[in-house]
Amino acid sequence: MNSYDMDTPITISDRDKPARQDKHLTIGALIFPRMDQIDFTGPFEVLSRIPNSTIHVIAKTNSPVRDIQGLVLTPDMSIAETPEVDVLLVPGGHGQQQLMNDEEVLSLIRNHFAAGRLVFSVCTGALLCGAAGILRGRQATTHWSTWSLLPYYGAIPIRSRVVVDGNLVTAAGVTAGLDAALVVASLLREDAIAQQIQLSIQYAPNPVFHSGMPDTAPAEVLQAFNQSYSAIAVSREAEARRFAAILGVAV
Predict the structure, then answer these.
(1) Could you give the CA distance from residue 150 to residue 36 in angstroms, rounded to a whole number?
(2) CATH class of 8-247
(3) What is the pLDDT of residues 80-137, one digit of tens each?
């Protein structure tokens, strides 16, 4: 598995950023079976604290879903019932693989992005965005284990924890969704609002260990992860190669 040495915490492209807004914000957060719940709950903790905003939790149906570890999450509405929102949160996790050919989900992402509204992916939610065709020519990041797959979807991979490219915000793996959500709060409101939210949730990371990246993790820890991840890694690479052919991307 490729080394992933993160260069910067945040990368912002020269493309126009979303304009700061005073109006009421509506945020749609997609959930699905076997997702990584913190891809959703981390950003939810931040985004739900943006003043004058509403979050809709959406899924393919109104039925509760279980994340990969068994946590039950309940949507407010189905995709079919979802109104237009200003921000669409697309999380990742193992269950993302089962949605890569789900046209209802892909159309939700594609249409939202085409309308110029902000798409915010976390972890392998970026691969869903790639399947929807919205990564072509865009700078993006994702979980370090799938970062090398971004070019298959036409993306320009950036080694950052958060990448902003116009109306696309992508976060690296899992907990990076907290950082990216603060960036989104800053983009749509102002830095002071994002800082107040950060203070209110006491987000001041100081990890006990420094094995959060492959370049700092002990060799045996990295080896154990790679072994446990190997099956889905093969599946994700095969899917990425298939999409490269569909999208006409030469890798």
Answers:
(1) 20
(2) alpha beta
(3) 999 999 999 999 999 999 999 999 999 999 999 999 999 999 999 999 999 999 999 9
Question: Tens digits of per-residue pLDDT, 148-168?
Answer: 999 999 999 999 999 999 999
- Residue written as token pair 């110029």: 116
Q: Are 19 and 46 in contact (CB under 8 A)?
A: no
**How far is 183 from 161, CA to CA, in rounded Å?**
11
Rounded CA gap, 219 and 226, in Å? 11
DSSP letters for 49-80: TSSSEEEEEEESSSS-EE-TT--EE--SEEGG
Cite the DSSP H helix spans in 189-218. 191-200
Q: What is the Cα–Cα distance from 53 to 221, expressed in whole angstroms?
A: 41
Give the span between the Cα atoms of 233 and 145, in whole angstroms.
8
- Residues 6 or more apart whose CB falls under 8 angstroms from that of 46 comprise 178, 181, 182, 184, 185, 197, 201
- Verify whether residue 129 is a known catalytic residue: no
Q: Which two tokens stand for residue 8?
A: 């910067």
pTM of the model: 0.95
Choosing from 122, 123, 172, 185, the catalytic residue is 123
